[in-house]
Amino acid sequence: MSQTRPSGNAGESRGPNRILLAVLCATAAVLLLSALLMPRIVPAMARRRPPSAESPQDKMAAKSAEWAAPTAPSTSTPPMNTPEFAKSEPGPDLQPSDTGLVRNDPGPAWEQPKPMVQAQGSYSPPGKGLTRGIYSGRKGPGPTVHASSDRARRVAWAGPNEELWVIALPSTTPAAPPAPGPAYETPGTGSLMARLPDAQKEVPVPLKHTDVKAAIAGYIATVQVTQQFHNPYSVKIEATYVFPLPQNAAVNEFVMTVGERRIRGIIRERAEAERIYLEARRQGYVASLLTQERPNIFTQKVANIEPGKEIDIEIRYFHTLAYVDGWYEFVFPMVVGPRFNPPGSTAGVGAVGRGRGGLSGQATEVQYMKPDERSGHDIALAVDVDAGVPIEDVLSRNHVVAASQPAPSRAAVKLNPLDSIPNKDFVLRYRVAGKTVKSAIMAHRDKRGGFFTMMLYPPAELASVERAPMEMIFVLDCSGSMNGQPIAQSKKAVERALRSLRPDDTFQLIRFSNSASKLGRAPVEATPENVRNALAYLQSLEGEGGTMMIEGIKAALSYEHEARRLRFVAFLTDGYIGNEEQILTEVCARIGHSRIFSFGVGSSPNRYLLDGLARVGKGCVAYLGLNDDAGPVMDRFFERVSHPALADIEIDWGGMQVADVYPKQVPDLFVGRPVILTGRFSGEGAASVRVKGRVAGEERAIALRANLEDAAASRQGIPCVWARAKIEELSYLALAEPSAELPTQIKQVALDYGLMSAYTAFVAVDSLTKTAGDHGVSVAVPVPVPDGVRYETTVEE
Amino acid sequence: MKRIASLAAFALLLALPLGAQLPAGAERPDAPIRFRAVDVVIDAGEQPLAAWQFELAAETGDAKIVGIEGGEHPAFAQPPYYDPAALANHRVIIAAFNTGRDLPVGKTRVARLHVQITGQAEPEYAVRLEAAASPTGERIAAATITLAKGEPK
Q: Can you tell me the distance from the alpha carbon of A491 to that of A535, in angstroms, rounded to the nearest whole number?
């Protein structure tokens, strides 16, 4: 009996198989349906769900919504291949949803394809035609954005009628930063929001938002920067933020806002300002201090921010715009690149990981977030241009912008809110009507007297004079910070240059990182075979190691100069070093008859160093962004060096009583590159100014008219621009001929004109807001490494 | 007349003597340091106040200005500008104007100065109203300036 099984048993034994089969079939059907429908269902779920839910479905919906968000940086991300993605591809009428969109942040730059924010946006006035195709825009009368990149267009926004929800966990107060100690600058752990992909971790930082408003009149920009600090922790903090500004910024205003109250900061000698700040901090008063570490690096400290409180800092500065090959260029740097400091130095700019404060041993230190981290700090930027003459074209090199043209000579440009990670320079170029722009003088007069700026354009006939044979020295920065896209851009540029050499030219190729090495012992003729060998050598170069730029300088400038040739040094680097003064001093000492043409490579190059190299090297600077085509950049360089400059410039000021003109030595005028002079004047009426110079032994002249009656006291920026230029002149003089007097002179100019300098600082104390206890925990604002730069090869951990 | 006289007397109490300079501020490491607010009040009488400028220095004591805040009326709520060159000479010249229609009349706080005081002594400030003008640009001759201790609202 025991061997006989009831039939029911057989049936039982088949039952589970059937169930299993049914389950498998159902699963397959669900999977199939899911594959077909999920791309449509999930965004819809995301749209319908309220943002506060936390169910797994909600999280899934949130994530899907993020994937579908327009900032998805890669064409390889899953939703981009879905029908939904294709459906949401923008057309002429497409508008981005601005309701709570959250970026799907790019991960490590080296893992991700070029993110959307690198898209090259451009604006053309109505009637000029949409040569680059519409990238995104808003319906109705709002601004329109264009992009030149097909990839950029393919990065989808939400569809016109779609609404995206981002699911966020309720905000919680992060843990308090640890008590002061060796790692006291480590902020609390945990993230504020659970809305990022698993690979990304949002870290709380005491800087919430930066707002930038720029107004450009002619070629002078007035820029207002507001930094919104807050305390997301449970204890009182001091926030420290190291940030960049343009290298020629004349910072003359500083206002701290505590609640509704706005307190203007006072310019003081730096040491005195630091003492005031430290004492206020010690006593628990809300206070702030702005110091200058380099002409383009500043440190903002805000003391005694209580939990949950906000304090705004407003900075205003003026600066002149560069005019490059037919385009005016406005630049707002957003992040300080990670600097390399030679062994033994302590006055440099250290680059350390978040929470590793003090590790570098440098006087200034920037903390960087890891590639899998991001902060909630974002940036908004708006520029109003009043060119005075019709604007023909506006172009944003690194960011997606919206632009409009309220009048032929005006343009309003706004950074797209979805492109708000501060990890690369904002570069706006605009072109005005006319083949060439004429030299002109702008004047201002107030109780201090008269001030003027003069932009001198090279005479058009320069372009018709041919050059002599030249000796071309290419110097490539092959350090770790150049690894990846930057060195690839450098190689493309040098390749183009090598192919542009004439057979009667000679060339040399030098690379440097920890040390320098050359293609050959001496420059060789640009024969096809030598160029081929050089190209092979060029392709073998990689970015790794330190940035011992001094070795590159020595190698480039230590040759005997062949008298019959013009000697040009093309220096390609991101400039990520902390010993700029040492480098510039070395160039001053060695420059001889050479001329340096510096090329700033990357998304956030060190423009102070690169401009300085060109200045002391008697050449010009050019910038090669990650989105730029290296070929035309190098072609323009060759156009520049293929014609002699207008040299030995002298100015007859006519009836103008002029003094204190800077730069004192008027730089040579190269094709396509004007220079800006600034000075003091007295007297009234009109004056005929004559600028003389020599081109290939022949005298050439430029005539211009100065109307001093026009010097109404309305161009407030001009005195600041003049004072800043004087400080710069004295600083460069100190490089070449150090003197104990020069710092005193710099300090006095800065104090007289209320300007930031290496020897002055702004301090503001709110004597009516005293917090309990001492200053609390110091927290550095960590920043992302610049776009295209690898954290692993540049940041000390 | 009686009102003007009493205001002038109050101003003298706070502002005597005029024309003095802020001390050079030699550092005294052991001296106590404190932070205080000083309110600057202008009484323009019955005329609306559209523009003003004053000069201030500390005659005795060691005081340094560490912040300048605006006034109580919306017309002068923004922090006024100061002359940095004057500051280098141990005094401060502060000014503001407003071209709007909504302007303060009578007594109004036009600025609040945040000051760091070093040492036991309470500084004595000298303040001089250099200009007070109506919207038409006319000088308000009867305007007076006084100082008061700054207090939070």
A: 9
Chain segment A562-609, per-residue pLDDT in tens: 778 889 999 999 999 999 999 999 999 999 989 999 999 999 999 999
Stretch 743-772 of chain A: residues touching chain B, C-beta under 8 Å:
748, 751-754, 763-770
Residue A500 lies in a domain: yes
Residues of chain B found within 8 Å of residue A766, distances taken between Cβ atoms: 67, 114
For residue A88, the 8-state DSSP code is T
Q: From A766, which residue of chain B is nearest by alpha-carbon distance?
A: B114
- Using CB atoms, pick whichever of A261, A287, A748 lies closest to residue B69: A261
Nearest one of A203, A600, A207 to A422, comparing CA atoms? A207
Residue linked to tokens 């604007």: A391
Provide the domain count of chain B. 1
Q: Is residue A88 part of a domain?
A: no
- Residues spanned by the domain of B106: 2-149
Show the CA angle centred on residue A382, arms to residues A381 and A386, nearest 5°.
150
**Contact (Cβ atoms closer than 8 angstroms) between residue A237 and residue A694:** no
Q: To the nearest whole angstrom, how far is the Cα of A245 from the nearest Cα of chain B? A: 22
A602: left (phi over 0), alpha (psi -120 to 50) or beta: left
CATH number at residue B142: 2.60.40
Task: Tell me the whole-structure pTM to 2 decimals.
Answer: 0.79
The separation between the first and the last C-alpha atoms of chain A, rounded to the nearest angstrom, is 77
Q: Are residues A457 and A479 in the same domain?
A: no
CA angle A464/A467/A471 to nearest 5° reads 155
Written as six digits, the tokens of A410 are 């005006």
| pLDDT tens readout for residues A698-726 | 888 888 888 877 766 578 899 999 999 99
Residue A509 lies in a domain: yes
Do the interacting molecules here have an ipTM over 0.95? no
Pairing of strands A144-147, A121-123: antiparallel
A574 and A695, same domain (yes or no): no
Distance CA A285, CA A767 (A): 6
Read off the tokens for A75.
């064409």
Residue A736 lies inside a defined structural domain of this protein: yes
Query: What is the domain extent for residue A607?
Result: 467-641
